[in-house]
Design brief:
2 domains, 9-stranded mixed beta sheet, mainly beta, single chain
């Protein structure tokens, strides 16, 4: 049924899920109905993918991660072991009258993890935020607001501490070159991989150069 996909015999994968060629699903995973997973992904032991979740290609999801309805993960994202996603900012088990809540009683808050971002082990991503392209979240952090592209954030709550290249190396101040055409834009060349990237987020720049 899922041609070109490896599924460990201990995993439970809905026939209504869509899974791309080359993806590997290891022990004790559960993939719900209408989940969409791209090509060449790796889902490690004990991963849960909720109904309707969308995951791009070349994504690595490490052990013990649950990705709930309302979370979208773009191509090339890394999710470290036991990181946590949520989808409800005001969770309750019951209504004020004591009755058990059902799906229609919940208010969904969507979360977007953009291309190439990395989330460290045991980090918590509070719902309703966007983590930018090639951003990196430190292990054990609690992300409560949007993370800019190429930002390195960590702590509780997570704050911007530096910039990171797409290759993962932290950007040294010697890498920055101011662009004459736009005072709010700075380009940098990574000393490790030599790639040049432009950053135009003034809030991020102010944090880096404060």
């Amino acid at each position: 049924m899922f041609e070109g996909v490896f599924i460990h015999q201990s995993s439970d994968v809905s026939e209504k899920a869509k899974i791309g060629n080359g993806t590997k699903i290891w022990q004790h995973c559960q993939i719900r109905e209408n989940a969409v997973i791209g090509e060449n992904c790796v889902l490690s032991k004990g991963v849960y993918i909720d109904f309707g979740v969308k995951i791009g290609s070349n994504v690595k999801i490490q052990n013990g991660i649950s990705i709930y309805h309302g979370v979208t993960i773009e191509d090339g994202v890394f999710c470290g072991p036991h990181c946590v996603f949520t989808n409800d900012k005001q969770p309750r088990s019951i209504n004020p009258d004591g009755t058990l809540k059902n799906v229609s009683d919940w208010k969904l808050s969507k979360t977007l993890i953009k291309k190439g971002a990395s989330i460290g082990a045991n980090a918590t991503v509070v719902c309703g935020v966007t983590i930018g392209e090639w951003a990196m979240v430190g292990s054990g952090s609690v992300v409560t607001k949007d993370v800019p592209d190429h930002a390195l954030v960590y702590g509780n709550p997570a704050k911007v501490h530096a910039l990171v290249c797409a290759c993962g190396e932290k950007i040294d101040h010697r890498s920055f070159v101011k662009c004459e055409s736009n005072k709010d834009m700075i380009s940098f060349t990574c000393l490790a991989c030599k790639e040049t990237i432009e950053i135009s987020n003034s809030e991020l720049l102010n944090l880096i150069f404060k």
